[in-house]
Amino acid sequence: MVAVLSLTVIFLVSQGTLFGVTEVECVSWIRTPNDTVVLEGTTVTLHCTLDGIEPDTGWPKWSQTFPIDRAVSAGTIVNKDVCSNCMVSGNHSIGEYNLQIQDVQLNPDEGQWECRAFGVSPSSYTAELIIFDEDLAYLVCNVSPIGPNRTIASGDLTNLTCDSGKAAPPGELVWTINGSDTETKGHRPLIWSKYFQKSESSDVYSCKYTYPSLEVPLTCSDDMTFDIQYHPSSVEILYDDEGKVKEHETFSATCHAEANPTPNYRWFSPTGILLSTKSLLIINSTQRSQAGTYRCDAKNKFYDNREGNASAAMISMCNVTGKKGEQCKVRQEKDEEKPIRKKYIYIRARIYHLVLSFLLDSPTITTLENVTTVEGDTVQLECNAEANPRALIYWTLPDATEYHEAELILEDIKRTHAGFYTCSAINILFDGQLGKDERTINVDVQFAPTQIGEPDFAAGIGESVILTIEVEANPLPVSFSEWRLGDLTFTNTTNTQTSSSLFIRSTTQDHFGVYVVHGVNSIGTGRFQVALLQKEVPEPPQLEASGKTHNRLLIKIIPGFDGRDPENIYFLVEYGSKGDDFLVWTGSGSNDLLADIQDLDESTTYEVRGYAINSVGTSDKSDLYEIDTMKKPEVFYFESNNTLTWTNYGKGSLTENCVKIEMSIESEWLVLEECYSSDSNCYEVETEVDNDVMFRIAFCLEVNICDSEYHKAVVYIPSTGGTNISLLGLIFGLLGVGIVVLIIFGVWWNKRRKGKPKDNDASVNDIPQHQNNENYSQHPYEDIDTQISVSEDNGNTEQDKAGSVRASPGTENEYISMEGSDGDKIEYMKMKGGKSDKGEVVNVDQVEDIKSSSSSLNATNNTDESISPL
Asked: Residue 119 carries which DSSP code?
């Protein structure tokens, strides 16, 4: 036994834990998990780093919380049965505990993951893991409107849509042209409305989805190029010999236009006769009578069968007369035998390009007229516009929605359809400028009077009341009839263009019921009704806990039926702990629907119930609701490192955004922090502190909005008896062996002695020290009033005050020897003040009357924690 005790003393002393208290470290978050997007089958790392966390403590803990609930790791230990492809990575010595998931799968790895730690606030952070499987490896990219083989008409408004195919991914979508990002970017679905031009035929379009955790962005399944169709332009006529031709010879010209698809050509004579449907015009055996203007038209047809705008180029052939100033001139040639006059026809080409000619103009909308109609009819609105190229026509409705057709039909029109309708016509000119015209008309929908709601009124017997019916109608005014209740008719009414009111001075039982009134305008007649009901006793409310602390409850009052008397209703709440009488919270009237009950006991179950009162009477009591108050927060001050730390109320508390910290100096409280917020619930006191200083905190929502109750700090003064030096540990261990031997010898010797105990029989200096006093850390700076009790064999217990013992942290425990009447000597533990030296020796003179030889002595304190004889 001696050897075991010696080894125990040596181990505890060498470890330095015999007197000390483990100091609190402030833990804080350094890096929290972020939402992450990855491809299925790859490896992902979720990050979690904390400062001040000790290794090998089983913290932090990783778990998946949605759609399944599974605890994956604790510290560095991974539950492979739950997640076989998971491991904890990172430099644990600096607080890195990253969760690495290899070969991630959509099921079960996608969802919400949580990293949780102890001693830090908040206690956990979560992140969303989004996984794209093989079916979602490419973006969904669509274009509308579009023809076969991705054909688009130049100048048409086209929508390019890009979607990830996954609900609300957190990354960003962006459209690209030839590999470069455009300004069109955002979240799904990403729609790019664009007017394509023929110059963009060779551009390559795509869309990509980026997110920091994705090594390679997601893109469309293939790049997109478009066949952009456009109407003929740059028409020109080509011919040989500088346009000269001899009479009776053949003239040819070729018409060419730039267009997609290839246009169809038509040649017309000066008189409008169709000469050719090919690009080549041939005139055989030219005659002077054929002089004039020849026109070439070029037209094509788009993929949707729309015709491209026609372009024209003209050439003029003139007859030579030899007059001065003519553009055509005569050339003479001589024959060797006989001079012969030959007439020549000179060709002049005038080329009119579509992009520069009169063929282009902005839209012009034809006249639109305002419309007056009756509710239920069908209204047809048609908008026409003259424009080249063809205009895009659309309507803007009163609710700002758009209808992209020239003809708008409103079937069974309602009054809600009334308002201003705007027709817009737009096209795009050759230089990219937008041509636009707008016209606005008013659609007036008329209807018979209609009641606005069917309100119920309530009154008590003898009360006065005004009943009112309100209507809407077009046109106004509305003429109202008398009021009727069954066979009764009332004429003391007040009418306006849209309402009628009846005044009842003193309500009787005969006034209750449904009243009927008629109203008429030029469109028709309406029948209206309103009810007058009798007030009743209200129903009890429902109660719901809204917030709480250790001594305070906030109860939300959910009203029931108010008895048709909302102006006079108010609520009361009764409360009390189980088995106690109920107290009443009265509130401040009908608007007070939050009961603030204070001065309660901590960690106590309270029963609450409510009832309502109006002008008619009092409701029944509601069901009983049980609500627990919280545990009172604890505050500690560690003198060794000048640090305050505290516990929180937890979920459901009223005020816990920050704390107000105060320090007592010379009986006055000095504010150190008005609203201190710390995730680790730690505060390092920078002010120099002496022995008599006290601290307290209050929980706050914000500055100057705090709990009225302060929580004082319990002061821990660490002992200085421990050391880690192995040599000193050995010395103290050997000393402990000797002390144990002396204790055993002393007990044996005292049992041999007979008679009453002698005064001051035990000297404090002769008794060994005990370091493991269990009361050491439970009552810092509190007085422990200690009594000595006598327990006899007959079961009777009498107590004789033997003085009091005052203790503080770091006390050294000593023995006081007392001798009973039977000669047995019983040793008591005395707590001697350590730093404050407040300990007092137990007065043994007051226990000399203990006569029983079989009695035993116990020391008990006023906290019901027994200090047993050693």
From this structure: S
CA atoms of 383 and 395, how far apart (whole Å): 8
Question: Given the DSSP bridges, would you call strands 36-39 and 77-78 parallel, antiparallel or unpaired?
Answer: unpaired
**Rounded to a whole number, what is the distance in angstroms from the first to the last CA of the chain?**
16
pLDDT, residue 145, reads: 81
Closest CA to 246 of 283, 292, 286, 284: 286
* 684 bridge partner residues: 643
Integer CA distances (angstroms), 67 to 63, 106, 124, 125, 171, in order: 12, 11, 18, 17, 21
Average pLDDT for residues 33-47, to the nearest whole number? 87
Cα separation, 232 vs 327, whole angstroms: 31
Looking at residue 846, what DSSP letter applies?
Answer: G
Q: What is the DSSP letter of 726?
A: H
* Mean pLDDT, the chain, whole residue set: 74
623 is written with which tokens? 């069901």
Ranges 212-216, 299-303, 534-538, 547-551: which has the least confidence? 212-216
Beta strands in 220-307, from DSSP E residues, in sequence order: 227-239, 244-246, 251-260, 264-268, 274-276, 280-283, 292-299
Per-position b or e across 775-789, b if 16+ CB within 10 A of its CB: bbeebbbeebebbbe
Q: What is the pLDDT of residue 739?
A: 82
The answer to whether 320 and 285 have CB atoms below 8 angstroms apart is: no
For 683, 721, 829, the CA distances from 245, given in Å and listed in that order, are 106, 128, 140
> Considering Cα of 632, then 57, then 77, then 95, what sign does the dihedral take?
positive
Q: What is the DSSP string of 582-616?
A: PEEE--SSTT--EEEE-SPPTT-EEEEEEEEE-SS
Handedness of CA 176, 178, 181, 182 (dihedral sign): negative
Per-residue tokens: 372: 């007056």
Instruction: Give CA angle at 504 (503, 505), nearest 5°.
Output: 110
Using N-to-C axis directions, what is the helix angle for 2-15 and 726-752, rounded to 10°?
140
Virtual torsion, Cα 91, 93, 96, 100, nearest 10 deg: 50
Residue type, 206: S
Give the 3-state secondary structure of 336-349: CCCCECCCEEEEEE
Pick left, alpha or beta for residue 704 (phi over 0 → left; psi -120 to 50 → alpha; otherwise beta): left
Contact 193, 213 (CB under 8 A): no
**Beta carbons of 816 and 841 less than 8 angstroms apart:** yes
Q: Output phi, psi for 850, to 5 deg.
A: -75, 115
Instruction: Write out pLDDT tens, residues 373-399.
Output: 999 999 999 998 877 668 899 999 999
Closest-CA residue to 194 (of 222, 164, 161, 163):
161
Give tens-digit pLDDT for 620-634. Answer: 999 999 999 888 888
The two tokens of residue 693 are 């200083």
pTM for the whole structure = 0.38
Q: How confident is the model at residue 153 (pLDDT cuts 50, 70, 90)?
A: confident
CA 452 – CA 469 distance, rounded (Å): 8
- State the average pLDDT over residues 432-441: 86
Residues β-bridged to residue 503: 466
Print the SS3 string covering 245-270.
EECCCCEEEEEEEEEECCCEEEEECC
Instruction: State the average pLDDT over residues 75-86.
Output: 90
Q: What is the mean pLDDT of residues 511-519?
A: 95
Cα–Cα distances (Å) from 847 to 6, 82, 788, 799, 820, in that order, read 35, 66, 8, 9, 9
User: C-alpha distances in angstroms, 704 versus 40, 612, 660, 694?
Assistant: 52, 34, 9, 22
Which range has the worst mean pLDDT, 60-64, 184-188, 510-514? 184-188
Q: Is 7 helix (H, G, I), strand (E, B) or coil?
A: helix
Lowest average pLDDT, out of 183-187, 210-214, 229-233, goes to 210-214
Contact between 670 and 694 under an 8 Å Cβ cutoff? The reply is: no
**Residue 3 three-state SS:** helix
